[in-house]
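Notes from the 1:1 (GR / supervisor)

We went over the backlog. Supervisor wanted to see one worked example end to end before approving the batch request, so GR pasted a single chain during the call. The sequence is below; no edits were made to it. Supervisor asked that the structure be written out right there so they could see what the output format looks like.
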Amino acid sequence: MRKFNQISLEQINKYSSNTLLGHLDIKCVEIGDDYIIATMPVDHRTHQPMGLLHGGASAALIESIGSIGSTLLIDLSKEAPVGIEINANHLGSVKEGSVRAIGKIIHAGSRTHVWQVDIFDEATDKMVCTGRLTVMIVPRA
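Structure output shown during the call:
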């Protein structure tokens, strides 16, 4: 398995500040040998009309973790990661607080990466969503 490029959590979160990640307040909080952990608040930014965590916000969190992880596995001067497929199974609901997502790389090929991401309610540690993201690694033009 390839190792992640070394970059600080502060650099990752600063790089993401003026993106969807910044708007949703998604924060990368830990990077391990083959995983990434990020958090996201459950509030007016991430609610659907019934006051629950929006499935699209969960999908955005899944894609964010996989994209960050794939970025850490490649040479950004030569390649770029692009999400090509995502799925999410919503297993429960959250009304407030925050969620924690744990993303693990399950395939790190030269042209595709596959990430498994599980999302938990931080207050109860109950899994509320599980998903998978496929990332294509494309040459930079």
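Supervisor's comment: Residues 57 and 115 are 17 Å apart (CA to CA).
Batch request approved.
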